[in-house]
Sequence to fold (148 residues):
Amino acid sequence: MSLSLSEDAGIPLQRIIRLSAKSKYLPIFSLSVETELEEQWRAQHAGFSTIITKLIDFDELESKTSRAINLYSQERYFNLDDGVMTVKLPQKCHSSAISELGIYFKTKISETVDFGIYHVIYDTQQLQGLDLEVVKLLLDENLSGAQS
Fold:
């Protein structure tokens, strides 16, 4: 739902949708201009499921949509094969993808150790750039609990 609707109608409309028992748990995304931080803050506190900023990053949109509708998206990142867990980093490793990886990683490490797998490979072939968030992900001691 665009937060640029006339007369700031987006937030009241979202609240009306939430009042109905049939749509109470329906994921509602707010759409905002990236620089409109106050507008995003209001949307966050109004109870929108997530905020999508313009210009839309479609990888981020896919990740947020998957999370909002509780799709099992671990397969897109993790693969267990021949005694090795491979963690495949997406082309654009934005903050929501890193957050999603972090959520699943501890569970995956436990599963792999239970199966006798002690090696992790980070597949960075598709990664388009290396920024500080990606470096932190790769070096995070919570995520590097297995031998790699």
